[in-house]
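User: Show me a protein chain along with its predicted structure.
Assistant: Here is one chain, sequence first, then structure tokens.
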Amino acid sequence: MDLQTRQDLTQNLHKDYELEFVSDSMTAPELAKRDSPVLIISEFLMPGMSGEELCQALKMDVSTGHIPVMFLTSLSHRADIVHGLEAGAQDFMVKPYDIHTLKTRIKDLISQSVSGESVEKGPYAGIEQPSESDMEFKCKLDGIIKKHLCDAAFSIKDISSELGMSRTATFTRIKSVTGHSPNDYLRLCRLTEGKLLIEARQWTIAEVAVKVGYNDPKYFSTSFKKQFGISPSKI
């Protein structure tokens, strides 16, 4: 892991977690067996043992197979993301990453792992690992949704138009790639972004609601609690 990433993680995570950095990826599997960390964050492209090889080694050992793995990578290596997921990684973050998103994903992965739940809770849970074309489609879909997130009227019809696909084809592809219907996935994206904005503590709940496409703050709060099990005011 490069020096800048180490400094960034140390600065933002040291108050909540005990961090240990490994300079040689070849020693990581043995150190994981010795220390039994609750989460491993790894670069994907590394000298010695690649992230994919590291993940495979960890998942094949009964003493480390339960440890969730998160990769750091770049948009230019989408194929690597797919390989990493196929090797058993639970999540990835694209550089440059948003620290609030990273913190939320770390918290969720650790919580699920400690509680004994499946850590495969992302949009690919319960379906086959995504192909590279699926990953590219999801990146495009997420970009479209994010661009129109504050538009309360934005719907599957608009998504279909931007994708250049029929509504039927859009529904089928989104359901296949994300495991959710288009409307459910759009709602999940709105609420997930809302959660990140609330955790940033820079806006009121009403302001966050508008930013993610909810004109009615009360309806936003109701939907938020239904999705995350907690009211936004309690975060």
